Amino acid sequence: MSINIENNGGGVSPRKKINIRYMATVGLLSALSTVLMYIEFSVPFMPAFIKCDVSDLPALIASFSLGPIAGVLTQLLKNLLHLPVTTTSGVGELANFILGAAFVLPAGIIYRYVKNKKGALIGSLVGMLAMAAASFPVNLFITYPFYTNFMPLEAIIGAYSAINPAVDSLPEALLMFNVPFTAAKGLISVIITFLVYKRISPLLRGKPKSLK
Questions:
Q1: What percent of the chain has pLDDT over 90?
Q2: Residue 123 lies in a domain
């Protein structure tokens, strides 16, 4: 978003105030999202190398309060801020950004056109399913090809088959474990968003409460 400086009797124009708030809010939510990336935890019935976090939560809030582009920008900035401490040469951050954008973009677009609680619910669930679906090709063609540089594919599949012996290939592992896991991760962000959004929306937007 560009900043237009207009003559307003020596004061700050309303348009400039809106743009400053937009950039400041995106920056704040991106910083919070980055912090949440470090608060990760293991989940039952998943290989130990797969961790869960709720760093998509601030981006979903940004997508609802400021629009879908703000949500995507929050995902982008989050991963750029995480790059200096990456352990995956940026591959993990790239995958995280793609999945995060797949989550918040449709959620924000649908909410923009159906601006009520029902629209937010439909949008967030569509985004959750889009992220879960995208996790299959992203993991198959981006994430795990990188991981095989450090861990043999057989060992990766073995970690899955130790939980479910029916798994004997990477695509099967991704469909049975990663896709549902990604959907559940998105659902957690959706639930938390619906619990807190109504309270914090006026602070983010500078407008009356939404999601009524």
A1: 81
A2: yes
